[in-house]
Amino acid sequence: MSLTRRLAALVCGLTLSAPLWAADVDIESYGYPITNPFEATIATTPPDLRPSLPDDSDIDQSDYKILLHPEREYELPDNLWAVTKMKYRLAEQDGEAPLIFIIAGTGAQYSSSTPEYLKKLFYGAGYHVIQLSSPTSYDFMASASRHATPGLSEDDADDLYRAMQAVRAQHPDLKVSDYYLTGYSLGALNAAFVSKLDEQRRSFNFKRVLLLNPPVNLYTSISNLNKLVQTKVEGINTNSNFFDLILGKLSRYFEQKGYIDMNEAMLYEFQMSKEHLTDEQMAMLIGTVFRFSSSDIAYTSDLLNRRGLITPPGTVIKSNTDMTPYLRRALQCDFDCYMREQLIPMWRARYDGGSLDQLVNKVSLYALEDYLKNSPKIAVMHNADDIILGPGDLGFLRRTMGDRLTVYPLGGHCGNLNYRVNSDAMLEFFRG
């Protein structure tokens, strides 16, 4: 895995006095030590404050593939042939157990760092666990999405639901007592829409659903992340110069340590060293990672739908094709560009959609306000300093979720998911 992809994976990713379920957790009793939301987002939790988790060698797990769209065996370009079948990971308990689905965040694959952490947490507590890629990941878009234009939350939920049903059918001997559902970041928004869909189709009858750091207004969250890439950093005027700066800092840090080991614990230690990133550098790193995810969505959606916006019409993509020109074009397209050029036109053509404001209301948690207010099985965990939140977002959650909302004072975006207070609270919620 390249350093850039590793950094992208890491970006998203117990003091018993802290209340497990309350509207707001007191900062003194909470005990999370990182007060900078950018640093928390990148470095997450200090290693000695994380929960004990089972080793991979102690988990009965395997990766599987399933063919959801047989026609794509003959339609996909060569560079996407490896993801014709949807990949997922299943960790099995010995005998009957509850099963929890985990939906990854923006652009993330099922095997990325945060789904892996959540898998170990829930498996250690006795659950079967199934990890699913985000509907915005290139592998899910190619293998599981009907329209390969993610961002319409109802469509994304439908694609996920069909995938979950197919996964269950692939394991008829798996003994399941109850079904549970969670997701983080954009995956939490997806989980809310999947839960609503399940109320109609009744295939799983999810017993409990937990939303971890969801966007409330999807457009606000996207705008917040887009702005980060425009952060002014002294001496930096291009992405190339910025990554040279980051790589230089990492190189000097590893040279001092005497070995190279890229992991979340290392990033926390790195931020404690003299090579640590400034606020502006951390903001730009987070924004740059999101820009790469947005560009990947735009490129994959354009290629699969043959729209000709990034990959010219008639272009034949082979496994050895030089992708540099297409990468450059894709990087010029942020999520706003993707919405304007691909998502909204598809929505209007397929569903007679209207304005941007109408789309935002349709794809955000606003669309589920009544359902969330009246569904006691759904809860939300969020952070007061989460960088994806905008004015009024926490107010909406408080009005809608009531005492099923827990707001932690610190943690940035998903940075405290691996803090022992949070992990204990997650398990407590699912235990009821």
UniProtKB/TrEMBL annotation:
This is Serine/threonine protein kinase. The keyword NAD does not apply. GO terms for cellular component: membrane. InterPro entries: AB_hydrolase_fold (IPR029058), MlaA (IPR007428). Residues 1-22 form the signal peptide. Keywords: Signal. It comes from the Bacteria.
